[in-house]
Amino acid sequence: MVPVTRRTGSALIELLVAMPLALLLAALAVQLFVVQLRITHESSARISNHAMLEHATAMIAADVQGAAATDVESWTDTSLIVRAPLLHATVCGTPAPRVVDVLDADPTHPLRSITFGTVQAGDVAALTLGDTSLAGMSVLARDTLERRFVITDVSSSGAACATSPLRLHGGGTPLRITLATAPQEPPELGSPLTVARRTEWRSYRASDGAFYLGRHDWNGTAWTTIQPALGPLLPNAQHGFRVRVLHQDGTPLSSMSSNARFLELHVRTPRTGVAATGPQFDSLTARLAFRGGR
Amino acid sequence: MPSRRGFSLIIVLALMLALLFVGASFSNSILHATRTSRLGWQGDQSARSADAALLGSLDTWDRVSAATLRTGETDTVLASGDASASSRVTRTRLNARTFLLVASAQQRDGAMRRTQRENGLVVQLNWPTIPARAAITTSGAITISDSATLLGTDAEPAGWADECANDRATSPTSALVSQGAIIAAGAIVAGRGSGTMLLTTSDAATLAQEIADAVAAVAATATIVTADSVLDADELVVNSTGDACPRWFGAARRGAPGPDACERRWPVVSATSPGVTRLTGDTPVQGVLVVAGDLHIDDGVQFSGLLLVSGAVLRTAAPSPSGPAGGAARAQVVGAMVIRDRANAGSHLEEPILVQASRCSVRLALAALGNPAPVRQHGWSARP
User: Fold this and answer.
1) Which of A99, A144, B225, B244 gives B236 a disulfide partner, CB atoms 3.0 to 4.6 angstroms apart?
2) In chain B, which among 43-82 make CB contacts under 8 A with chain A?
3) In sequence order, what are the beta bridge partners of B224?
């Protein structure tokens, strides 16, 4: 007869103990994961919001950068019309009093033109005029040498650049710009030329009912369709986008004056997926100094 | 014996799997966030590095090396970094006074990822205001003989066409601006208007002060200071690279058999001798010469650039027996001559001399003492 051994089963007890512990651990892990996901989501949203705000501010700054106060045509609380740069180029020839040739946009060389759009009649060219003295004027007078001219024609035939010592750096076809009037002195060869265009930034309400920060420019006869650059913003009433022109001491100006020194931009975007308490929006304020005062 | 099916393993495995999934998701989320933030940080760091390199190149601007560049040429002014980060600034000369600086900075994250940013800046050289209003500008009086020629129409020295392409004057300047002038009938004085512009006493006093300021400012930044009273253009000296160049100035004859390095030298020489400083020798030379006393220009001198004189300028027979024994070899100055005539002794151009206004040679010479100042942001571009 085979003796029957008593088999005391501990697996069930162990399992009964282990399972709640495991479930507890799993619940803790899931809870941690959910919290982490929420924090990550909120952080990402905030980072993304700030990146958008910085990007939009940088875009406006690029339009305002290098602008003098005279380049600001008008502004309201929620809009700004400024002459924004469209082309930065180097003058390589002046074949006629009203004609300026500039190096092309060959992307492989540092002397290339940098373009943000196609230059057209009606745009404004800012030129550094040559000084007639033998030794050059004081650098302090440099800004006074810059003059603006309306462009009447643009073509890709800057033949004068072929004889320029800068020609080695122009791989493509130079640009020929014809001005409405002849400068008193021709621009210095090798000097920078900037072409600017009327550009408006404003907060507008789109078809979805939300507010966006949009940009469009003047094509010579009308404003082009506004394109969103940032959004959605808080509504105008909640200062989704605010523009101010400031005096040197920081006080806001109601109209352009010789004391205008800074442009202040304030942008607010709503936060999504956050608790009801705490700030419900992200914001950024940028203060840009006008070139050369006025 | 009843069969006993174990289900605990399955439960444990399922729980382990769930934990594994949660852990993997957790890790993936962290890795993604880390990578995104690192790339963003690297991009920012590249942009800041490019900006810093640009400012650094302005801060460490080498006037001498800047002057050696010819219009259209590019050099590297700053290069630094290692396997993980690097920056580089190139400089292209656009004309005698204007340069384009382009800074490029890179951040590398292993072999696969890198961020690069470029930033450009146009700079103009800021040099002391030089009251060069004509080929010869003097706040004193001047006597000009039949054998002198003063031309206000802009022209560069022979062989300088490419170098001067972006720096020619578009309209003539005066040939002579002075307080008083005695001009012989046979002398040629041609330029804007009648070629000569006479100053009132008060204008002359103002000009004298401007010249004094210019002399002080230029002398303060001179690359060569000497008390020698004779500066011989023919005297050679072997420099650190083994080239035999004129001791005092740069070589002005382009395409000559001499070393190219000599033609790219633009020294600023300050002659501090209180008496007469003689410029002698017939080797064509270039640069800026500031003279504390009077300047005597000997026969055959060929100078391109700027002469800035506190005393008077004398183009007379050799002042001492050691000099050339008279002769009619015409001296030539292409650029500008600015004379204060501190002692009101009057300048004398009695022997043959040509003084030719040249905006290009003056500006090229002045570049050796200019400090860069930004003109405007040229724009930027980012490469992924």
Assistant:
1) B244
2) 70-72, 74
3) B269
Distance (Å, whole) CA A192 – CA A166: 13
Which of A2, A65, A134 would you mutate first to test chain B, the one with the most B CBs within 10 A? A134
Note whether B368 and B64 are within 8 A (CB).
yes
Cβ–Cβ < 8 Å for B119, B50: yes
Q: Which residue has the tokens 């200062």?
A: A239
pTM (2 d.p.)? 0.81
Q: Does the structure's ipTM exceed the value 0.90? A: no
A134/B22 Cβ within 8 A: no
Contact B251, B52 (CB under 8 A): no
d(C-alpha B64, C-alpha B379), whole Å: 28
Residue pair B144/B346 in contact (Cβ under 8 Å)? The answer is no
pLDDT tens series, chain B, 384 aa: 556 666 777 877 887 888 888 788 878 878 887 887 777 788 888 888 888 888 889 999 999 999 999 998 889 988 887 778 888 999 999 999 999 898 888 888 765 677 788 888 888 888 888 999 999 999 999 999 999 999 999 999 989 988 898 898 888 899 999 999 999 999 999 999 889 999 999 999 999 999 999 999 999 999 999 999 999 999 999 887 788 899 999 999 987 777 788 999 999 999 999 999 999 999 999 999 999 999 999 999 999 999 999 999 999 886 554 444 445 689 999 999 999 999 999 999 999 999 999 999 999 999 998 889 887 544 433 332
- In single-letter form, the type of residue at position B204 comes to A
Residue found under tokens 């072997």: B238
Beta bridge partners of B42: none
Hey, which residues does B286 pair with through a beta bridge? B250, B304
Nearest to B53 by CA among B30, B80, B27: B80
Taking phi first (over 0 means left), then psi (-120 to 50 degrees means alpha), and beta for anything else, what does residue A33 get? Answer: alpha
Cβ–Cβ < 8 Å for B139, B339: yes
User: What distance in Å separates the CA atoms of residue B100 and residue B91, rounded to the nearest whole number?
Assistant: 6
Torsion of Cα atoms, B250 then B256 then B261 then B265, to 10°: 20
Residues A226-268 pLDDT 10s = 999 888 899 988 889 999 999 888 899 988 877 788 899 999 9
Phi, psi of B201 (to 5 degrees): -60, -45
- Pairing type for strands B276-280 and B230-232 reads parallel
Omega before A232 cis (within 30°)?
yes
- Interface subset of B 98-137, CB within 8 angstroms of A: 98, 100, 102, 120, 122, 124-127, 129-134
Answer whether A45's CB lies under 8 Å from A272's CB.
Answer: yes
Residue B288 to residue B303: CA distance in whole angstroms: 9
pLDDT digits (tens, 9 = 90+) for B100-132: 898 888 888 765 677 788 888 888 888 888 999
Q: Nearest-CA neighbor of A83 among A143, A145, A125?
A: A125
User: What does the alpha-carbon distance between residue A271 and residue A251 come to, in Å, rounded to a whole number?
Assistant: 30
Give the whole-angstrom CA distance, residue B19 versus residue A100.
Answer: 70
- Return the amino acid letter for A237: A
How far is residue B372 from each of residues A144, A271, B103, B124, B365, measured CA to CA in Å?
18, 46, 15, 5, 15
pLDDT on residue A254: 86
